[in-house]
Each structure stands twice: as structure tokens, then as C-alpha cells.
Design goal:
Rossmann fold, alpha/beta, 2 domains
Length: about 210
């Protein structure tokens, strides 16, 4: 997905990302409540590997049939354990899934051009890691303090501290993502505080689009 595609869309598309366990999906839901169209890359990643898809067939050929459940669906956690920390295996998986996710994402964004949404968001956890931040009209980064991120990840996934720290370290440091952002949302406070930040940014983006010729 490139800026060459998204810049010609009638409705502007903004990237939405953040560190693991920082709550970008919570923020995305708050934007949805304003009628904003959201394309979730994680949901796309699930769709492209459904039983019967070419991507799932390619994954089985690359990693073996033991990454499938009894019903033929992908055991995402097992596959994740197999590629985590292994550059070559991860590159193989990414080569299978990323082009298909990008193509499906572009399809969904094009479909949403016909909706009543004032603008669109493309939500992706590793948007910056994939170098996609320049593909959009602007980048929104959701963040929390490092100690809050660690605690939330451990609580959310039942992970031990060492495992949680390793997963955080596998992403680009949060401060680097913040430095690249056009806008940031601090999700380390109360739900009401986060909602107020989303409301304010939504108003700003609406005003920005009205001023854009």
C-alpha cells in the first residue's frame, strides 16, 4: 500500500498505530463512534489465512500441517511461537501474508470511499515497522508510559515479565513511533481522558479536511 494510491482517494486515510498493549483498538472504537471508517489490519490478517485461502496453503507448505487445528484453521499462537525471534522464518511468513493483507486493505478502503464516513483510519500494530507511515495523509500514534505498557501486556495475555519485555522489544521503540507521529493520543489515563483526546483530534481532523482544497 503506497501514498500513490491513498492520496487519490476522495476520503483521506490516516494511519493509526501504537505499541503493543497501548490500546490502539480502544481508540479505533472511539473513532468509529464518530462515524469514522476503520480498516483493521489484524482482522485482515485473520481473513487472508482462513481455511481454503492461498495464504493458508502457502503457510502449510512452508511450516508444516501441524500449524493447523483439527478443523483446518490456523493455530496462530503456535505459528507465532515458531517465527518469533527467528528472522528467516518471520521473513517467509511476512512474504506470504503482507502482500495479501495490503491488497485486501486497499480493497476495504476503496469500499469505504462510498460510505458516509468523513475520513478513514487504517489501524495496524506494525505499521511503522513495515515502513507504511508515509502511505497516509497523516499518522496517529497511541501510547502509554513504558511501565503501564508492560503491566497491561502481562495482564492481557497472562505473559511473564521476560516474555512481555521480549515482545515489546520486537517492535520499534515507542518513542521512535511518537517522533514520527503527526498526532499522538495518551491512553495511559482514564477512559474519559482518552475519549476526550479522541474527540478533540476528531474535531481537528474534520476542520483540517474542510480547509483542504
Amino acid at each position: 500500500m503506497s501514498r500513490a494510491y491513498t492520496k487519490h482517494m476522495t476520503k483521506p486515510v490516516y494511519g493509526l498505530t501504537g505499541g503493543i498493549a497501548c490500546g490502539k483498538s480502544t481508540v479505533a472504537a472511539m473513532f468509529r463512534a464518530h462515524g469514522v471508517g476503520v480498516v483493521d489490519a489484524d482482522q485482515l490478517a485473520r481473513e487472508v489465512v482462513l481455511p481454503g485461502t492461498p495464504a493458508l496453503e502457502a503457510i502449510v507448505q512452508a511450516f508444516g500441517s501441524d500449524v493447523l487445528d483439527a478443523d483446518g484453521s490456523l493455530l496462530r499462537k503456535k505459528l507465532g511461537e515458531r517465527v518469533f525471534g527467528k528472522a528467516e522464518a518471520l521473513a517467509t511468513l511476512n512474504a506470504i501474508t503482507h502482500p495479501r493483507i495490503a491488497a485486501l486493505g486497499m480493497q476495504r478502503l476503496m469500499e469505504l470511499q462510498q460510505s458516509d464516513a468523513p475520513y478513514l483510519l487504517y489501524e495496524a500494530a506494525i505499521l511503522v515497522e513495515q515502513g507504511m507511515q508515509r502511505s497516509f495523509a497523516g499518522l496517529i500514534v497511541v501510547y502509554v508510559a513504558p511501565e503501564v505498557q508492560l503491566a497491561r501486556l502481562m495482564a492481557r495475555d497472562g505473559a511473564g515479565e521476560a516474555d512481555a519485555r521480549a515482545r515489546i522489544a520486537s517492535q520499534i521503540p515507542l518513542e521512535q513511533k511518537i517522533a514520527m507521529a503527526d498526532w499522538t493520543i495518551d491512553n495511559g489515563g482514564t477512559e474519559e481522558q482518552t475519549r476526550a483526546a479522541v474527540d478533540a483530534l476528531h474535531t481537528q481532523l474534520l476542520s483540517r479536511e474542510r480547509m483542504t482544497p
